[in-house]
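To the wet lab folks,

You asked to see what we're planning to order before we commit. Fair enough. Below is the target structure as tokens, and below that is the sequence we designed to fit it. If anything looks off to you, flag it before the synthesis order goes out.
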């Protein structure tokens, strides 16, 4: 046993509800995937593609919906051959298959009870066709990622869902998700040029192939004839044809796209339409070619406040007529809850409950058109009775990008911000429906009355320009009375929408499990039966996603509702939306932030010491705690700011033995000697064979603990100079604090980073002073990231006391040359300071060296030489600090071309975590490294030494600080 082996018991819940939850995973599933399913799929696909542990099954059991179904097995498909093999296997054994990518669907579409196939990890990529008029996109690509590539060509996708940061193209097409501006003309059904998909039989269809119909007729003759038969029946029924056309005059994703039979003349054309919005029940979409749209960059936006929701709804048609592509509605509850989102005015919390707002946006290709839109908008506003209940309300149109961004951030956070503020322990239901836009005001009044009568707190927002409203319901799925209340509401809501407004029960979220029982209510028996026949024609054996679109059980929407047991306070608001997942460095290796919380909640559902809990706890140490980079970028992506990284650090601390804490505190108290020893060790390592060092450190890891002893990696930088450059305090414009990592490890090139910063600052007439006693101090991140509270406290107070003295009580700025250290000193040390030192800390002005260079040095420097091209690696700390723009500004002064990879993200090296678990950095940097190595660059720049080391190993290219390049570029 390792010397400092952690105690797994520390990860068991310290407290939990009085009894086990009714929806807990039963003990019989504790061993994971049963036989022969486990061995058969492993033999078919390989062990690396088949996830069978109970912890794997549980983490895939939840998505953004209120439902939870535990799969029997999870397959991580790598290519179409894998998908076809799984479908063939399922056919031969009467099994069921569900495909899952982002898991952001709100109605349980990404959940299955048998074989669940992950089509996110290996299914990302964007190929721009021509000048951007079209794009070929893999289904695991997020909308945000696709648009990042298209924006360079002045193009954008039509669908623009609020979950663009996380939702993937496959899910967007499969659900016909639309969003803020897509309406009925820019959605997937209207903008998909062609699809490649795999039918339930394994047949692959590329609708762009000239002979696609001939190939399909040869492979699937019965399917082709069945589709044409249904088409003929629909065309022969004038009343039904008219009804179908009328249903799609407003947004509608409930059921199958029956208009595909009217819009397509051949089986392949019909299938192309049917696949859109089919929710994975007809096949797997492996590739999408979109017709893209112009990206109008001239934007004018206003957030207009009204005394009531009906008053706001009544104004919507006026802005539609004025040409606004986006008119978004938010009620008072939504506005107040969004104050949990950074950048939203705090005084919105004091808005009267009856207040509502419209977010109105005009987009134009040029200045002239923008001015015309603004004139039309002003005329509309002149006729409105607006209110300004709090000081931040302006009711004015603006072109300011920062203000506009804050408005949209508040709007897009509707589900998560409102859901995050719900009562602890409650399940969240998100519904969306559509009515003719002219009936929107009436629908708002009726919905509010219905919610109030059933005891639900109203929360309403929506794409008002298209008559599309969204609302939330929170209830306790563990209480039968609450479930009955939800059921009664749904019965009345569905009848109201259909019978009073002739609306769509699902406007853009697709049918899913919670509306499937009400499909016939909206469509009638004739059209609904045609949908059942269509499913029978395409998937006669019922292999794909049963009960997700079609279900004859009138209570199907009440099956599988998940309880939400209380967990640690920092994570308890999580509604499992998945917005955090694309930013997580460990997402393709072990678990994501959402999955870490999902696993924790299942532990809470269990009886203490149950076989399921044992299995979850056993896996949680490595899968959740050890492989969390602790970068907290999940907090930035989460609309309610949940910091799962901080939770994992808490768990690391809980697992520490008293011996570990004492050792950590000892290193903090004696860090001057530790620092010197580390520098000597690195210098000695330069003269020792890399293979020997790797062997020695691996042996030490086994003896002590893998999560404490780093593994030596080839090409680790050499030792820094023992002495820092000489500077003087007299006349200094700032105090320069070289981070300990830059005092231990050398910089590449002919000058060290401290030498470069000192030189370029003097050159700009802003000289800096390096104190003589920086040795032995640190930003405390070393201890903070590992959860060592005592050591963290020692060093946090030491650095603040020293910095206060160096800066003469804060009169000079403290410039820090590593972004993670800047973040540590500026923010992360605060909770560990004494009351007196918190007062000192408030007087400090901690400045990242990037900000110092961009704002204070660049205006006074002359660039004498540049490199041709530079690729940047913005670090996660820069994201927290908001310094990415300064990184780019400094780089643009030094290079003719500057590129930030579309897939740039946290490298997960995280100080030494990339040496503790090198597989973490390898996984986290895979996509970014592929972009970087796809072409040659003259410089590879960042601003954090260990992140640069991580990227060195990921790409085989030499990364170094952008400040070194700035010094070289401005050197006379």
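Sequence we intend to order:
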């Amino acid at each position: 046993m390792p010397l400092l082996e952690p105690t797994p018991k520390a990860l068991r819940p310290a407290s939990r509800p009085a009894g086990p939850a009714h929806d807990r995973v039963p003990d019989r599933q504790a061993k994971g995937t049963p036989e022969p399913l486990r061995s058969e799929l492993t033999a078919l696909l390989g062990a690396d593609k088949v996830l069978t542990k109970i912890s794997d099954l549980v983490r895939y059991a939840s998505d953004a919906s209120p439902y939870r179904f535990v799969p029997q097995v999870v397959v991580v498909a790598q290519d179409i051959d894998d998908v076809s093999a799984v479908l063939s296997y399922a056919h031969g054994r009467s099994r069921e298959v569900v495909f899952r990518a982002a898991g952001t669907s709100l109605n349980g579409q990404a959940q299955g009870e048998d074989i669940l196939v992950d089509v996110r990890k290996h299914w990302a990529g964007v190929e721009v066709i021509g000048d951007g008029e079209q794009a070929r996109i893999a289904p695991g690509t997020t909308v945000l990622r696709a648009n990042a590539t298209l924006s360079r060509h002045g193009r954008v996708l039509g669908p623009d869902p609020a979950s663009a940061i996380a939702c993937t193209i496959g899910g967007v097409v499969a659900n016909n998700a639309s969003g803020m501006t897509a309406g009925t003309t820019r959605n997937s059904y209207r903008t998909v040029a062609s699809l490649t998909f795999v039918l339930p039989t394994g047949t692959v269809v590329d609708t762009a192939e000239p002979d696609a119909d001939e190939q399909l007729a040869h492979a699937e003759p019965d399917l082709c004839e069945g589709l044409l038969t249904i088409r003929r029946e629909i065309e022969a029924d004038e009343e039904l044809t008219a009804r179908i056309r009328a249903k799609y005059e407003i947004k509608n994703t409930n059921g199958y796209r029956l208009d595909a039979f009217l819009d397509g003349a051949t089986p392949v054309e019909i299938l192309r339409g049917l696949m859109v919005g089919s929710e994975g029940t007809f096949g797997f979409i492996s590739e999408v070619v979109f017709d893209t749209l112009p990206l109008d960059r001239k934007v004018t936006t206003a957030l207009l406040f009204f005394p009531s929701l009906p008053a706001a709804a009544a104004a919507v048609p006026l802005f539609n007529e004025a040409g606004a592509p986006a008119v978004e509605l938010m009620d008072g509850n939504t506005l107040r809850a969004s104050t949990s989102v950074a950048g939203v005015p705090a005084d919105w919390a004091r808005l009267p409950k009856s207040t509502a707002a419209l977010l109105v946006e005009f987009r134009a290709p040029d200045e002239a058109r923008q001015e015309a839109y603004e004139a039309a908008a002003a005329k509309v506003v002149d006729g409105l009775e607006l209110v300004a209940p709090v000081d931040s309300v302006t009711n004015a149109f603006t072109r300011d990008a920062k203000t506009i961004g804050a408005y949209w951030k508040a709007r897009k956070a509707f589900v998560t911000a409102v859901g995050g503020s719900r009562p602890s322990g409650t399940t969240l239901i998100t519904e969306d429906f559509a009515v003719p836009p002219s009936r929107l005001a009436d629908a708002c009044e009726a919905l509010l009355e219905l919610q109030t009568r059933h005891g639900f707190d109203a929360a309403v927002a929506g794409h008002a320009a298209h008559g599309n409203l969204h609302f939330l319901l929170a209830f306790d799925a563990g209480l039968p009375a609450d479930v009955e209340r939800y059921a009664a509401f749904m019965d009345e809501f569905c009848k109201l929408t259909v019978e009073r407004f002739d609306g769509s029960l699902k406007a853009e979220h697709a049918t899913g499990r919670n509306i499937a029982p009400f499909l016939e209510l909206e469509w009638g028996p004739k059209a609904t039966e045609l949908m059942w026949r269509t499913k029978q024609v395409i998937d006669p054996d019922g292999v794909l996603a049963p009960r997700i679109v079609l279900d004859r059980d009138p209570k199907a929407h009440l099956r599988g509702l998940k309880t939400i047991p209380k967990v640690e306070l920092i994570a308890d608001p999580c509604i499992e939306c998945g917005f955090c997942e694309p930013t997580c460095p460990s997402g393709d290796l072990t678990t994501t932030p959402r999955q870490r919380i999902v696993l924790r909640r299942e532990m809470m559902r269990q009886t203490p010491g149950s076989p399921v809990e044992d299995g979850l706890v056993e896996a949680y140490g490595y899968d959740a705690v050890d492989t969390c980079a602790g970068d907290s970028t999940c907090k930035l992506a989460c609309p309610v700011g949940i910091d799962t990284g901080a939770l994992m650090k808490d768990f690391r601390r809980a697992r520490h033995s008293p011996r570990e804490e004492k050792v950590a505190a000892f290193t903090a108290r004696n860090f001057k000697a530790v620092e010197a020893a580390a520098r000597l060790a690195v210098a000695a390592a330069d003269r020792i064979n890399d293979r020997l060092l790797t062997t020695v450190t691996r042996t030490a890891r086994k003896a002590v603990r893998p999560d404490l002893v780093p593994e030596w990696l080839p090409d680790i930088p050499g030792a820094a100079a023992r002495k820092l450059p000489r500077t003087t305090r007299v006349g200094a414009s700032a105090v320069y604090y070289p981070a300990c990592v830059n005092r231990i490890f050398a910089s590449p090139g002919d000058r060290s980073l401290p030498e470069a910063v000192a030189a370029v600052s003097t050159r700009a007439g802003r000289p800096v002073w390096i104190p003589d006693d920086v040795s032995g101090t640190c930003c405390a991140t070393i201890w903070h990231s590992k959860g060592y509270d005592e050591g963290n406290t020692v060093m946090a107070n030491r650095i603040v006391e020293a910095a206060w003295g160096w800066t003469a009580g804060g009169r000079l700025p403290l410039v820090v040359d590593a972004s993670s250290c800047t973040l540590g000193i500026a923010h992360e040390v605060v909770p560990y300071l004494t009351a007196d030192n918190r007062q000192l800390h408030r007087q400090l002005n901690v400045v990242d060296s990037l900000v110092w260079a961009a704002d204070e040095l660049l205006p006074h420097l002359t660039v004498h030489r540049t490199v041709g091209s530079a690729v940047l690696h913005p670090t996660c700390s820069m994201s927290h600090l908001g310094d990415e723009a300064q990184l780019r500004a400094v780089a643009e002064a030094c290079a003719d071309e500057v590129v930030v990879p579309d897939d740039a993200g946290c490298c997960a090296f995280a100080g030494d975590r990339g040496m503790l678990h090198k597989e973490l950095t390898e996984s986290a940097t895979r996509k970014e490294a592929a972009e970087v190595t796809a072409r040659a660059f003259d410089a590879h720049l960042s601003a954090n030494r260990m992140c640069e080391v991580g990227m060195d190993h990921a790409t085989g290219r030499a990364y170094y600080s952008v400040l070194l390049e700035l010094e070289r570029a401005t050197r006379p």
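Structural context that might help your review: The chain has 41 helices and 25 strands. The first helix runs from residue 37 to 45.

Thanks,
Computational group
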